[in-house]
Design goal:
The chain has about 500 residues and is α/β, with parallel strands linked by helices. The chain is built from nine helices and 24 strands. The chain folds into three domains: about 190 residues, 2-enoyl-CoA Hydratase, Chain A, domain 1 (Alpha-Beta Complex); about 130 residues, no CATH class; about 130 residues. The strands form four sheets. Strands 1, 2, 3, 4, 5, 6, 7, 8 and 9 form a nine-stranded mixed sheet that branches. An eight-stranded antiparallel barrel has the order 17-18-19-20-21-22-23-24. Strands 11-12-13-14-15 form a five-stranded antiparallel sheet, with helices on one face.
């Protein structure tokens, strides 16, 4: 069986000779035979996608299939893409003509934007003869660039919009990506973090891998494996938008004596009990291969069971930049301590900041709350919250205990405001009523609701030395008047 790099190169030379008679188009992307042992590519498309490219690529794939054995090569080869956009009509024609009978990749240092990104998302079949349409068909190197839409690319024509929306279900393209392709007024949406790759069902590799499982790694693997499922459920049911949902227990590490590291996590999805089990067995023979499997047993007993392949990035925290997960050598497995590459998870909210003294709102301004959550492998965590409004307010919350994006009931965090110890609490309904609200909070609520004083959840921190109260009201938590009117 021809399976070595030399064997692949020899067949590539033969196919190149077969394809030498194909017509050349000076303005079309260059489509050529290509051997890439890292990304497992057999073809390469480079340059802006043009109207001539669909037929040329189709002919090249036909000759490839006629000249190779399915025992030696996958029947649906992987195409490496390096294209700064091009013609969306040509991209749609490529997808239509090839019918998903190919997989896609973007190699280190390459970029795929605009029309190219649409072709990339149509990658369907994994390498080595295995079908992995959920994650394996499209692979991005951690040092590559993949971006969607933006003001710098050719906009979709009206007729093309319906075609792109129609591809959403067929190729499992996330709504974030569809919306980015349609919005040419905003900046391009670029794949950047572990959370995005997992939610958009894009494999990233080759990457470093954790040297061992930990409670944090199990939680991340379960979160990322279930993210597409949970996203679909939330889209279907408005009642499932609670930021603390789904409920999760503490991950448990298990040992079966086979050398495979395993972990288990109990959680609830859409009100149903779910057991997530993570099996981690290290590097696959392919640099971009899976490192384990995640199984989700939904409902218990005779309930459904869902299996998802586990890839290295899925074991790291949501906000970890993909670029930081690149290996020193693409072809050599590189285990690392998971905490060495994790980035703090980050969440931002626009809203109003204010300072209350003697029951009066003495200062207020628009601000952005940024919350960073840093954790170690055993769920000890530090939360740092900053408010960018020019007043220098800084709140730091520290505690030890479970990592789960909310404080466990048995843990008492310690807060400081401008370096001074502070007490914290929240009030769901500042509304000027006789409910014990601070009058200054009611004033702040009227500001963000344009005087309507409707539903207005507010977070408070009181300095223990002066008694002054710092408050924050998030725009997304108010029902009316989301724009600051300057009312005073």
């Amino acid at each position: 069986m021809v399976s070595t790099f030399f064997g692949r190169s020899l067949i590539a030379i033969c196919l190149a000779l077969l394809g030498s008679g194909l017509p050349h188009h000076s303005h079309a992307a260059d489509v050529a035979l290509h051997t890439d042992p890292v990304m497992s590519c057999y073809l390469r498309l480079e340059g802006p996608i043009d109207a001539a490219d669909p037929d040329r690529l189709k002919q090249m794939l036909k000759r490839y299939n006629e000249s190779t054995s399915s025992l030696d090569f996958p029947s649906s080869p992987r195409i490496c893409l390096n294209s700064q956009g091009g013609d969306y009509a040509a991209a749609l024609a490529i997808i239509d003509q090839l019918g998903g009978r190919f997989s896609t990749a973007i190699a280190s240092g390459d970029a795929c934007t605009g029309a190219c990104a649409l072709v990339f998302m149509a990658g369907r079949e994994g390498d080595g003869g295995t079908v992995d349409s959920r994650q394996g068909g499209r692979i991005v190197h951690p040092k590559a660039t993949l971006s969607f839409g933006g003001s710098g690319v050719t906009p979709l024509a009206t007729a093309q919009i319906a075609q792109v929306i129609g591809l959403q279900t067929t190729y499992d393209i996330h709504s974030d990506i569809i919306l980015a392709m349609l919005d040419t007024s905003a900046d391009a949406r670029t794949l950047a973090t572990v959370a995005e790759a997992s939610l958009w069902q894009i494999r990233v590799g080759p990457t470093v891998m954790p040297d061992k499982l930990s409670p944090l790694a199990v939680l991340m693997a379960c979160n990322h494996a279930s993210a597409p499922l949970i996203d679909r459920l939330r889209f279907a049911d408005d009642e499932l938008h609670d930021p603390d949902w789904p409920e999760r227990d503490t991950p448990q590490l298990l040992t079966y004596g086979s050398g495979v590291q395993t972990g288990q996590l109990a959680l609830k999805i859409n009100g149903r009990d779910v057991t997530c089990e993570v099996s981690y067995y290290g590097a696959h023979s392919l640099p971009t291969g899976q490192v384990g499997v995640v199984s989700l047993s939904i409902g218990g007993g005779d309930g459904a069971e869902l299996y998802r392949p586990l890839y290295g990035p899925m074991l790291f925290t949501d906000s970890t930049p993909l670029q930081t997960l690149a290996r020193q050598s693409d072809t050599v497995a590189e285990p690392v301590a998971i905490t060495s590459r994790n980035a703090p998870d980050k969440a931002e909210d626009d809203g109003l900041c204010g300072l209350i003294a003697d029951g009066k709102l003495i200062r207020h301004s628009r601000c952005v709350r940024t919350e960073y959550i840093t954790s170690d492998t055993a769920f000890n965590e530090l939360i740092r919250t900053t408010f960018d409004s020019g007043n220098g307010a800084l709140i730091v919350a520290t505690a030890t205990g479970e990592y789960g994006r909310r404080w466990p009931q048995n843990m008492e965090p310690e807060y400081t405001l401008d370096g001074v110890p502070a007490d914290a609490w929240s009030d769901g309904m500042p509304d000027e009523g006789e409910d014990g609200n601070d009058p200054g909070a009611d004033t702040a609520c009227r500001i963000v609701t344009n005087g309507q004083s409707q539903w207005c959840p507010t977070s408070f921190w009181r300095r223990q030395d002066t008694g002054e109260v710092f408050l924050f009201i998030a725009d997304r938590h108010t029902e009316a008047g989301l724009e600051y009117s300057g009312w005073d």
